[in-house]
């Protein structure tokens, strides 16, 4: 029976070493997206050791080896639904089509509404095993396989639904939806995804290629949201917060959220200390907010009396 991901007791030094590896990878000149996502998986499933990390990277290499190398430009008509600005199924369109045929059709990677209810859907090693996941993790698979094969690929962090782009973001490109098996998206399709998630129209800013660390933070945000809706999994929410705080750039409010979570978990002294530290950080710009946070810290300490 496969191991179910979830927090398990492990030596503190092993956890510290893994988090240092995550922090170092996040601060690398060219962050390794696959490695960072796999280290998130190792936080959820400590049984995922170095051999398991290597096996996942090898699987991505294997899948990349199944793709035709450097699709050539062909003067064929674009299929229905191909993205705007790429008038023919050539170059970017060929890469998108080949990825969809390999990963979506032959390998069965895709998603469904039920995948949103599973933590495994946010863990790269589990997505590679189950071939199911959230849009952003499936997009990571598409991007990492395509990148290894030499494709001009990038992530597109549409609100509520991550997709991938092939080609030149400012020129000829196509969009594909890995959650839908790699179906090609027109800009109208992308606009409908955005409108369904936010009620807002699609903008050029939304089409900007996503930075690897932005993708990692969004993965961790999804895990936090999953755990926040399930109080019995507060330990998952805590480690997702702690990994987020190891990223070079992160919202300051995450420190406040971590402090509050520590208090909720009964770690009153640690939570109070974190609240007081956060109050010092925000005092210069929000003096009234800092005062309110100090009151929270005092209330947390009072829980010990």
UniProtKB/TrEMBL annotation:
Organism in which the protein naturally occurs: Streptomyces caniferus
Pfam family, one: TPR_9
Domain called Protein SirB1 N-terminal: residue spans: 86-221
Similarity-based family: Belongs to the UPF0162 family.
Protein name: Transglutaminase-like domain-containing protein
Compositional bias per record (Basic and acidic residues), positions renumbered to this chain: 1-16
Chain segments carrying region Disordered: 1-24
Signal peptide location: none
